[in-house]
Design brief:
heterodimer, A: alpha/beta, Glutaredoxin, Rossmann fold, de novo design (two linked rop proteins), five-stranded mixed sheet, four-stranded mixed sheet, 25 helices, 40% helix, B: alpha+beta, Arc Repressor Mutant, subunit A, 2 domains, 7 helices, 4 strands, binds flavin mononucleotide, binds FE2/S2 (inorganic) cluster, iron-sulfur (chain B), metal-binding (chain B), iron (chain B)
């Protein structure tokens, strides 16, 4: 039970050597520390088997080593990941079968298992230390500071990293107004999408009248292709709890709710553990740090509706109703949960708060650009070598992210665009790759920061198809209350559908633009107001690709199936029969070692499996 | 079915526990519905009515919530739920083709559940393992870097599991969709 700062310091002292050893600071933690990622990415490739096997063998061979669970390191592409301290050795793609060798060679003999090290693709060099790898070197971690460093299920590891010290400081030494001021001065803006100044929001909630107020965390993360909030919750749940308590103090609330989707089982589990531990240590509950401040947090589950990420819809859903948005004002700061003043922020926004308090607003404001301070977490995915979770200072260029950290496009293909902002964002073409990323610059390019999903597209991605994908998403997820959004997106989708089927007309493009304007102007909530963005931005930068579909009945990327025919080049075909074996539709006819094969157009599903399989490059699309 | 009633009683008993735990808290309807769905496998009208009664709210309100959220379903599902990730990262790596292939091989024209009641196939949003795209899950198991050609093999794996388990309800279908995908 923690009653004051001294109790916190005691715990920190006890656990600091372990953490220092992981931070490579002088300390004297005994023995090896073997960190195994238990983020969603690594768990999906069976990191738990690796962890269990490690624990088993360490015990069996009586090695002085501890096996520790962590959250996501970010380098998910190379998972399951294992990092060993001292030495900061990173092992990639570790399988259960590799464990014996790691234990024998590394933990017993102190030698590195070369073959499991990461090989830098550009130089072919094997990198031993995590911090030597290009992927990590260009990053700067603030919100992700503890992800991959601490065991998220152990509150004392968080405390060792100065966790809950900001809360202690604030409760013991600051006035609520000073807290609000600090957040304002830091220049922090909301990481959930729109980038509203966080300090301003806290101020509005602080001055709102009423004895009962709430603090809410938006952990819905509906963007299809984004997983940063989830990774923070899985890797460092206490940072969110601590920030919410600080926010509660600042605005005068005693209760907080985290709205998290039920489809994030690991995040829900870690949050439940974290809340229970924080209560047990007296860091949530009554009279925190022996002050008069009471604060507790509870979870509310979301059930898979994108629109519930919108703040007014979320507040309804959090009280168990249908998650339908309502017009604003009134804003949540005046009328939120159960009609009471409510402060609503995103997970990543909160994760920044304890650092701002500890390091000072000036430090935070010194990072990033003039109007966008601090760092931003992105989930980088799609046609990029190093998919994963990254954090960079605002103002880093798209090129740095995609080519430096991301390692560029695999298989020697051409970069086409990077999609940011998810369903409310747009596609940015090559010529803007040197744009520094911040809220304004992305908006100027017709895209958005959004929550930080970043999908890289290459020459084999069809831009019309991508626009259709996002619009389909918005159409599916529209709550249906307002006509512009419900019907407008449907009309737009029909047009895009026609174009991909080769039935488009040139007039369609103008109509798409007109409809876009109408839907944006007349929709009730942010979903409809931004849904046309993917269409508008692709029309702006890739109009020729739309025109190729309409005028030439051709899909340059080779995606739109109705516009493709798979053909076997008789000259090149050696009748090996591999394509026919690959074909699930039995559409490829021929005899092994006989005449060239051919494809039955009627039966062909246009899946492209044959094309990928052909060793001679004899199959092409026309 | 022998014992069916007992089984059902047991389920309602579990549901009572859930309502006991969360029912007095405000705004926990979604939580209760989720747990109820985990217990019953889906949310039939009787269960919705039961929950409404216990929470003292109109059935229409409970039903309004059930129909709003993608997580809830009111029809029974197959024994194995296959969720194909249609997040953006998976989509650009060919997830649509995988979904189409499942639908074709399982002959799903309308509805998501195969005629033998074994498989329910649906699409889902980002699973959070984008590095492994395209990704699908079968119940709790995650399959990454999945290819359209692996569909037949996957279905075979679970069907075989049924045969071995000797589960009588899951009869072998008359005819497997044509065997495909050599090399697996
Ligand atoms: C359709 C729609 C979906 C949204 N989804 C999310 C979401 O999943 N997570 C999130 O934090 N914010 C989401 N937002 C933004 C929230 O409404 C809100 O602005 C944000 O959570 C506020 O927190 P912040 O100021 O810390 O960014 C969404 C907005 C709209 C219009
Ligand atoms: S989940 Fe393991 S590195 Fe991301
Ligand atoms: S998009 Fe499929 S796992 Fe993220």
């Amino acid at each position: 039970m923690i009653n004051g700062l001294n109790d916190l310091i005691d715990i920190q002292k006890k656990r600091l050597p372990d953490i220092n050893a992981r931070r490579e600071k002088p300390g004297d933690a005994a023995g090896w520390q073997v960190l195994v990622c238990t983020g969603t990415g690594c768990t999906s490739s069976a990191s738990h088997q690796v962890r269990e096997e490690l624990a088993k063998q360490v015990q069996l061979k009586k090695v002085q080593a501890r096996v520790i669970k962590t959250g996501c390191f970010g380098f998910c592409k190379m998972g399951p990941l294992v990092v060993i301290y001292p030495g900061q050795t990173l092992y990639c793609l570790v399988k259960k079968e590799d464990v014996a060798e790691i234990v024998e060679k590394h933990l017993l003999e102190g030698q590195v298992v070369e073959r499991l090290l990461y090989e830098e693709p550009a130089s072919g060099e094997r990198k031993r230390r995590l911090s030597d790898i290009q992927f990590f070197r260009a990053q700067y971690r603030v919100a992700l500071r503890n992800c991959g460093l601490i065991n998220p299920e152990d509150i004392t590891e968080y405390i060792a990293c100065e966790g809950y010290f900001a809360l202690a400081d604030v409760l013991l030494n600051w006035t609520p107004a000073q807290v609000v001021d600090a957040i304002k001065q830091s220049g922090l803006r909301g990481r959930g999408g729109a980038g509203f100044p966080t300090g301003r929001k806290w101020e509005l909630a602080a001055v709102a009248e009423g004895p009962v107020k709430y603090v809410v965390c938006n952990a819905d993360e509906g963007d299809p292709g984004a997983f940063m909030d989830r990774s923070i919750l899985e890797g460092d749940p206490h940072s969110v709890l601590e920030a919410m308590a600080i926010a509660g103090y600042a605005i005068g609330a005693r209760e907080g709710y985290i709205y998290v989707r039920a489809e994030y089982p690991i995040a829900v589990d870690r949050l439940e553990r974290a809340i229970a531990q924080a209560r047990q240590y007296g860091l949530l509950g009554r009279r925190i740090f022996n002050t008069n401040f009471d604060f507790d947090i509870d979870l509310r589950l979301g059930a898979g509706a994108f629109v519930c990420g919108e703040e007014t819809a979320l507040l309804r859903s959090a009280v168990g109703e249908r998650g339908e948005p309502r017009p604003r004002p009134p804003y949540p700061a005046q009328c939120g949960l159960w009609g009471k003043p409510t402060l609503l922020n995103n997970v990543e926004t909160y994760a920044n708060v304890p650092v701002i308090i500890r390091e000072g607003p000036a430090w935070f404001a010194s990072l990033g650009t003039e109007n966008s301070r601090g760092t931003k977490v992105f989930s980088l995915a799609g046609k990029v070598l190093n998919t994963g979770l990254i954090e960079v200072p605002m103002g880093t260029t798209l090129r740095t992210v995609v080519f430096d950290i991301g390692g560029g496009i695999p298989e020697g293909r051409q970069f086409k665009a990077v999609q940011t902002g998810g369903p409310s964002g747009g596609c940015i073409p090559e010529r803007y790759l040197d744009t520094p990323i911040d809220y304004e610059s992305l908006k100027q390019l017709g895209s958005m920061m959004g929550s930080g999903g970043m999908i890289v597209l290459d020459e084999t991605d069809c831009i019309v198809d991508i626009a259709k994908f996002y619009l389909q998403f918005s159409q599916d997820e529209s709550c249906g209350q307002c006509t512009p959004c419900r019907v407008g997106t449907k009309r737009m989708l029909e047009i895009l559908e026609r174009i991909t089927l080769g039935q488009g007309q040139m007039g369609d493009l103008n109509e798409l633009e007109e409809l876009s304007r109408e839907v944006m102007d007349a929709s009730l909530c942010g979903l409809g107001q931004t849904a046309p963005n993917p269409v508008l931005s692709t029309l702006k930068y890739f109009r020729d690709e739309y025109e190729a579909h309409i005028r030439d009945k051709r899909c340059p990327a080779g995606v739109c199936r109705a516009l493709l025919d798979y053909v076997i080049d008789e000259e090149k075909c050696v009748a090996c029969g591999l394509c026919a074996r690959e074909c699930v539709a039995k559409a490829i006819i021929g005899e092994k070692k006989g005449q060239p094969y051919f494809i039955d157009r009627q039966k062909c599903l246009k899946c492209g499996a044959c094309l990928a399989r052909c060793p001679k490059g004899a199959i092409y699309t026309a | 079915m022998a014992g069916g009633e007992k089984e059902l009683d047991e389920k309602y008993r579990q549901l009572d526990e859930v309502i006991e735990r969360y029912g007095h808290q405000e705004g926990q309807l979604i939580r209760i519905l989720k747990e109820a769905q985990d217990i019953f496998g889906y949310l039939p009208e009787e269960v919705q009515t039961y929950i409404a009664g216990k929470l003292d709210m109109p059935v229409s309100e409970v039903n309004g919530v059930v129909t709003f959220y993608a997580l809830f379903h009111t029809e029974p599902r197959g024994k194995y739920g296959i969720s194909v990730c249609m997040g953006t990262a998976c989509y650009v790596q060919g997830a649509q083709g995988i979904l189409d292939e499942f639908r074709r091989q399982l002959d799903l024209h309308e509805g998501d559940t195969s005629a033998d009641g074994l498989f329910t196939v649906k699409s889902t949003r980002c699973v959070g393992a984008c590095g492994l795209a395209p990704v699908l899950t079968v119940e709790d198991e995650v399959y990454g870097k999945f290819r359209r050609q692996d569909v037949a093999k996957l279905l075979r794996k679970y069907r075989r599991r049924e045969v071995i388990a000797g589960d009588q309800r899951a009869e072998r279908p008359d005819r497997y969709p044509e065997e495909t995908a050599p090399g697996h």
